[in-house]
UniProtKB/TrEMBL annotation, chains A, B:
The protein's name: Homoserine dehydrogenase
SUPFAM superfamilies: ACT-like (SSF55021), Glyceraldehyde-3-phosphate dehydrogenase-like, C-terminal domain (SSF55347), NAD(P)-binding Rossmann-fold domains (SSF51735)
Keywords, ordered alphabetically: Amino-acid biosynthesis, Methionine biosynthesis, NADP, Oxidoreductase, Threonine biosynthesis
MF GO annotations: homoserine dehydrogenase activity
PROSITE patterns the record matches: ACT, HOMOSER_DHGENASE
Family: Belongs to the homoserine dehydrogenase family.
Organism this protein belongs to: Thiobacillus sedimenti
Domain ACT: from-to ranges: 354-430
Domain of life: Bacteria
Length: 437, 437
C-alpha cells in the first residue's frame, strides 16, 4: 500500500523527537499501521539549525508550504502557542488534511471551533500529545472507558510543578530555591508562569473534562491556582499528618454541575497517585463501572511526547478511509450530543481543607477559631498546635476540615484573619481523599 | 441510526454486569457510540435463575440460538473455558458476526486460529476484558504505544495472588491461612490452582506479549511458577532488604529472543508497581520512546470487567463499517507481519535472584557458598546472615545476586544443596529492578 504523507510544522524538541522515532522505529510502525508513514516536508524557523537533523527531508521556512501541499495527507502541528498555530490548523482542515497536534493551549482555547471545522470537512484532528505526554490518557478516556459514567478525574499533569513539589519534600527546600534548580536542570522554563501558576495544567484539565463528560472546551471557566505560594512548612506539616501535596487538576461531576479546578492538594500518602514523584505525570479516573483506574508515565520530553504524536499518526492512518460517522468522535461523544452541564463557580465547589495560621499563644484563641468554623458549618477533622519556637510568642495552628463548601471556608477565613489573636493570612490548601467510593 | 444488536453467551457475574452497565449507562453509551447498543438475546444455563436479571430480554438455554441468530451483529462470549466457547466463537465468526470475549484462556490457547478465521471473514474479535479487567491495557498497547519498540512489560495481572501476597505482608500470615481467608471473602475460588499457580497470569501474559512484540500467541512456551511455596519469612526478609514480593508476568525482549515468564518477584519498594496492593492489577510497560508507563485498576469483578466488554462493544460499533484492512489489527501488528522471534527457554533468561537457605552456624559455610556462586559466574549484591534462634543450630542466610543467567543459578543451587553444612532446599525468588533504563 502506498505511504501516507506527513508534513511537520516545527522541528524543535517534539518535532525532532517525532522525526527520530518515526525513523528509528519505521519497520515496527509500518507493521502496525499497515503502510509506511513518511514525513515528506517540514516547516522550520531556522534552516541551518534544522538541516543536520532533517538530512534529506525537504525543509521550508513558510509553514503554509506544508498546509497547502497537495501531496500531504496529515499535518502535524508542533509549533505551539495560539497564532499562527490556529490559522495553520484551520487552513490544513480547509484543505481537507487530517491534523495531529501536541498543542494543549490551542486545543483548550480553540478546540470547539477546530473540531467543528474538522467535522464539517470530514477530517480527523488528533491530540493525544496535548495531555500528559506519552501516556495514552485521551485514548483511555475516549475509547477505553466508554462504558462508564465518569464521576471524577484527578491528574498530576504538570511535570515542572510535580518536580518542584517532590524536591521541596525530599530536601525540605523553599519554593524559590527549587524553582531555580529546576530552571538550571531544564525542568522549568525561563518564564515559568504557565507551569507554576497552574495554567498549563488547566489547559490539559479542560481537554480531559470535555472528553470525560461530553461537554465543550471551557478553559475560561477553570479555576486555576498554582504552587508558588506553598511554603516548606506546609509541605512538612502535610507530611506529618500523613499527606502529600500535589498540584492536581480535578474535574468532578457534582450535583449541580461540573467542578473544574487546578490547585495544590493534600492527598493521603497511601494513595498510589501521592507517590508519583519527580517530573512524572499520572491521571486517576473514577468511572462508575470500572472504579478507579490510574495512568502513569512521562508527561513531557522529546520522545515521550513524540510517542503520542506517532500513535495519533498511526490512528489516523488506520482510520482515514473509514466513514467519518464511524470514526471515534473528537470529544469522545458524538458532536451533536455534547451536554450543556454548567461548570460550577469555585464558591460552590465542595472539598476538604488544610488551614494553617499563626496565632498568639494565648487562652481563648482556639475557642474563637473553632466557633467561627462552627458558625460557617465547617466541622473539624484534626487540629494540631505546634510548640512556639524559643522566644516566639506565635504558634502555628493547623486544621483539617471535613468536606464543606468553598464559600463557607472563604467566609470563615475572612473572619479568622480579623481576630486580634491571629497574625497575618490563613494558608488554605484543599484536601482530597481520592477514595474509590 | 438503527441499534446494533448484541447477543450474550452467559449471564453470570460478567454477563450480568455487562447487562447492568449497558442498561444503566445507555444514554451516555449511545451518545458515545452514535447508536444504541441493544442486547436482543442471551443464552444461559439456568432460565429460572436468569429471569430476574434479564427482565424482558429473551433467553435461551441453547447458545447456538444466539450465534446463529441472523438479527445479531455482535456475539459476546462470557461463558469461559475452552469448550464450547471455542466452537461458539468460531461459529459466530463463520456466520459473519463480530465477537467480544472476556475469555483469556480461550484467547491464549486458540487466539491464533480465532484471529485467522476472523481476518478471513472480515469480522472483529475484541478481547480487552481478557486481561486486567477494566484497565484498557490492550488498547494502550495496541493503539496508544504504536510508536514504540516495546522493550519489556511486567504486570500484576492476577488479583487473587496479589491479595494473598498483600495480606501475607500486612499480617505476617502464612500462605495457607491467607488463602483460606481469600476463599471465604470470594477473592479465591474453591479450586484456586489457576490463580495461585500462575496459570491465569500466564494466559494474560501470553496475550500481552503477542500484542507488544507482534508474535503469535504461545502460551505453551510461557514459564509458569505460582506463589504457593512462598513463606512468611521470605516476605519479611524481602521487606527488610527494601523489596516487596509480587507475582509478576514478565515479557522481555532479550538479545536472542523473548522472555515470557510468570513467577514471584522481588521489586524495589520505591517502584509504583510495588505499591499496588489487594486485589488490584497494574501493568508496567517500557517503550523505547515513551519510557515507562503504568496502567492500574481493578482486574476482576462484575462491573470492572463489564467496563472492558462494553468498551469493546463501542469500539466494534464505531468500526464495524470500516474497511477491514483499516481497522486496528487483532494483535496490534498487521496479520501478515507477525514475527517469528523465539520464546527463550527459562534456562536462558537473565535476571537477579534472592536466595534463602538454612545452614549450620559453623565456620566455612559462607566460604563454601560464595565459592560455588563464583564458580557459576554469579556475583553477590548483598548477603545477610540471621542470628540463630534460641537453642537452634541453624541460621537463615539470604543472598541477593546481580543479574545472571538462570542456568547458572540452577547449577549453583544444586551444588549448594549438596553441601553437608546446608539443610534442606534453597529458596529462590527472582528479583527485578524494573528501572526505567
Amino acid at each position: 500500500m502506498k505511504p501516507i504523507h506527513v508534513g511537520l510544522l516545527g522541528l524543535g524538541t517534539v518535532g525532532g523527537g517525532t522525526l527520530t522515532v518515526l525513523r528509528r522505529n519505521a519497520e515496527e510502525i509500518t507493521r502496525r499501521a499497515g503502510r509506511e508513514i513518511r514525513v515528506v516536508r517540514a516547516a522550520v524557523r531556522n534552516l541551518d539549525k534544522a538541516k543536520k537533523l532533517a538530512g534529506d527531508l525537504p525543509l521550508t521556512t513558510n509553514p503554509f508550504d506544508v498546509v497547502d501541499d497537495p501531496a500531504i495527507d496529515i499535518v502535524v502541528e508542533l509549533i505551539g502557542g495560539l497564532e499562527p498555530a490556529r490559522e495553520l490548523v484551520m487552513q490544513a482542515i480547509a484543505n481537507g488534511k487530517h491534523v495531529v497536534t501536541a498543542n494543549k493551549h490551542l486545543v483548550a482555547k480553540h478546540g470547539n471551533e477546530i473540531f467543528a471545522a474538522a467535522q464539517a470537512k470530514g477530517v480527523m484532528v488528533a491530540f493525544e500529545a496535548a495531555v500528559a505526554g506519552g501516556i495514552p490518557i485521551i485514548k483511555a478516556l475516549r475509547e477505553g472507558l466508554t462504558a462508564n459514567r465518569i464521576e471524577w478525574l484527578a491528574g498530576i499533569i504538570n511535570g515542572t510543578s510535580n518536580f518542584i513539589l517532590s524536591e521541596m519534600r525530599d530536601k525540605g527546600a523553599a519554593f524559590d530555591d527549587v524553582l531555580k534548580e529546576a530552571q538550571r536542570l531544564g525542568y522549568a522554563e525561563a518564564d515559568p508562569t504557565f507551569d507554576i501558576e497552574g495554567i498549563d495544567a488547566a489547559h490539559k484539565l479542560t481537554i480531559l473534562s470535555a472528553i470525560a463528560f461530553g461537554i465543550p472546551m471551557q478553559f475560561d471557566r477553570a479555576y486555576t491556582e498554582g504552587i508558588s505560594k506553598l511554603t516548606r512548612e506546609d509541605v512538612k506539616y502535610a507530611e506529618e499528618l500523613g499527606y502529600r501535596i500535589k498540584l492536581l487538576g480535578i474535574a468532578r461531576r457534582a450535583e449541580k454541575g461540573i467542578e473544574l479546578r487546578v490547585h495544590p492538594t493534600l492527598i493521603p500518602e497511601r494513595r498510589l497517585i501521592a507517590n508519583v514523584d519527580g517530573a512524572m505525570n499520572a491521571v486517576l479516573v473514577k468511572g462508575d463501572a470500572v472504579g478507579p483506574t490510574l495512568y502513569y508515565g512521562a508527561g513531557a520530553g522529546a520522545e515521550p511526547t513524540a510517542s503520542a504524536v506517532v500513535a495519533d499518526l498511526v490512528d489516523v492512518t488506520r482510520l482515514h478511509t473509514a466513514d467519518p460517522h464511524h470514526r471515534v468522535p473528537h470529544l469522545a461523544f458524538q458532536p451533536d450530543q455534547l451536554a450543556d452541564t454548567p461548570i460550577l463557580p469555585m464558591d460552590e465547589v465542595r472539598t476538604a481543607y488544610y488551614l494553617r495560621l499563626r496565632a498568639f499563644d494565648r487562652p481563648g484563641v482556639l475557642a474563637d477559631i473553632t466557633r467561627i468554623l462552627a458558625d460557617s458549618d465547617i466541622s473539624i477533622d484534626a487540629m494540631v498546635q505546634k510548640e512556639p519556637a524559643e522566644g516566639e510568642e506565635q504558634v502555628d495552628i493547623i486544621l483539617l476540615t471535613h468536606v464543606t463548601q468553598e464559600k463557607n471556608v472563604n467566609a470563615a477565613i475572612a473572619r479568622i484573619e480579623r481576630l486580634d489573636t491571629v497574625a497575618g493570612k490563613v494558608m488554605r490548601i484543599r484536601l482530597e481523599e481520592l477514595a474509590s467510593k
